[in-house]
Amino acid sequence: MTSRLALFREMAEQQEYSALYQACCEQQDDTMYAGDRTFQLLFAVACAHVGEQSKAQSLLLNINESLQISPLCSVEKLDLSAVFLALERLDEATFVLDELLNEEYSLSVVLARKASCELMKGKCAVAYDLYLKSLSYDDSNAEIWLNLCLLLLDQYREANIGFGTEKDPLLKVREYLIKAEIAFEASEHRYSFDRQDSLLRQIDNIRFEYWVINNTLEKAEAWLYEYIEDCDFYISRVILYSEALLLENKSFIAETVLLNTLRKYPESIACYQALVALSSRFQREKDSLYYRDQYEQRAKVNIESQQVIKLNESLSESDEFHLQPLSFSLNERIKARFTRAFIDSRITPLCTLDKSLFSPVFIIGLPFSGCTLVEQILLANNKVSSVGESSHISVLVEGLNFKQREKGSLRVYPELVDMLSLNQWKALASGVQSFCMGKINTNTTSIVLDKGVHNVHHIGMIKCLFPKARFISVRRDSKSYVLSEHVTEWIKSEGNTSQTVPYSIGEKLQQYSELMSYWKSLFSNDILEVNFNSLIEQPNEISKSLFSFLGLLTPNHSINSTHDFSSYTKRKVTVDKAKQDKNLSELFSALNKKTIITDDMAFIKDPDLLSSVYSHFQHGAYREAEIACKKILRVIPDYPPVHHILSELYLRSGLFEKAVQSLETALRLAPWKEVQWARDLNRAKRITEEYQLNGVNNVDNKA
Known about the structure:
TPR repeats lie at residues 640-673. InterPro entries: P-loop_NTPase (IPR027417), TPR-like_helical_dom_sf (IPR011990), TPR_rpt (IPR019734), TPST-like (IPR026634). The protein is mainly alpha-helical. It has a five-stranded parallel β-sheet with strand order 2-3-1-4-5, with helices on both faces. 66% of the residues lie in helices and 3% in strands. Among the domains are: 215-322; 331-591, 3-Layer(aba) Sandwich (Rossmann fold), CATH 3.40.50.300; 609-698, Tetratricopeptide repeat domain (Serine Threonine Protein Phosphatase 5, Tetratricopeptide repeat). It has 37 helices and five strands. Helix 4 packs parallel to helix 6, helix 8 packs antiparallel against helix 9 and helix 10 (142-159) packs antiparallel against helix 11 (169-187).
């Protein structure tokens, strides 16, 4: 009996509650166990954790009756505290744990458990101090170090501060994570296989959260790359990484990472499941249906799993907004990159290459500006289809950023687009077109709509991809916009606490207007402005202008007969007069902010310059490749991939010391590439040393 109970206790310590519950159920009718208090306590722990609360409560009653015969020993008190915690009877758990502290029994374990209890009460600072005190008695428990990391990460997200006097909680996270790994490695043998796997997932999850919050995505991706050939492990960690990105509102990067994984492992069901959940979260219906279809083709089952059903139900029933934050922080850089000179250097040659008839139409506007209404009106013509609010262009942008990090560069959009060759532009356009056509009825469609909110940032890029693309900019009267409850909730969800809501709304309107004015200065013939208020007051007239802009006939039936525009005009917002005046005053204060004038950004005028480097290199034209590299470095002096290529060119030209210098420069600029490039650096140094000792003849072949 003692050995069996020891096995049950080990299951509880390993948190294998389902297995413990099953084992206890098999023994509960055995008279040898039925009256044993230790067995009842362990059974109650299992019941409480698997959702059998009533059974756990019943077992507690039996235990209470046994106290009349003999009091609980310290071990039993510790088990009882575990039951109370699992049942969320926190005051009783605290009472039992305080008794154990007075007895000075297993102080490290008891303090850690009391910390968990305080955490469940919402007393994070108290829990943090108790965990640290627990570690002062025994610092070999990896789980406690991990709990400290999670507490600090949550605290940082809430207030960007640590606990007590700690000024930089992220440094502490890194320190505690290292200690957790050391503790885990030292005590790995104590854990079951499942518990080891669980702890390793927690360690890696914290690792990814730390990197994402620190915005050092290149380190996360370099770490992942080391495991790329281990399919199951790699995919499981990619999922963790994508979850960490979502937690920080980086959904486009998360989607990019998942799609990039599918290039390596195209049959990964887990990645498609994650993509379905992601697109459903942001109510991108067409994207969600597309990923569902891909999943079903591979899984051979219906994807209506409980996880996805619950997610969709929560989205439809909840008033919470799930919108990817819309920031205009790149406005000045976007305008500095997509200048008239840059556009002309790319669009003109691309137009000669583009023989397709694909001319997508992008409906542009701030959230709740009326883009969906415009989309519905246009869909009245059977030649029009829509991909809804897609992520195509935003994910394409993040894909380019991802590839730069992979190459060893932190150059990002919009700066990086001058490195794209004409053939790359064509390939990217083909990929986006393929995605679009996979989500619509291609038999009748001649025009494809996309109403992705974030496309306002990428109009310049879209015109390079699709020179025939057109845009419909939908705006709403600023006074009615600032009074909208939906708009208010959206602005609040952005988490901007430094400004009032009306001022933040005015800021968004001003930034949107400024960027759209710039795009109109470049593409005036391809942008149609639509006022939402005019649309609901004069639906037929505005609808005719919409169809005329697309070169389509207005449907024979009246637009009024298919859309209830009166429902928009009837919406009234009751606001206190003084509050309304204050809101409008703050709104106009933001709208009247002055525009910042920026200088044009230097760019590589030859779009095929970088691709020519690789072409020359492959054909042994090292001098020509070197000249092309130096042309790039004159514009972008700190571009690690080119420094890396230069090192290879110098090696082949016998300039060994220069090769070492170039590689050292590349590694200094891209330290996360150390694993891949350090091998090249060691090789270059070895060849250089041999050259200095033996002369050039002995090292030519090695170079």
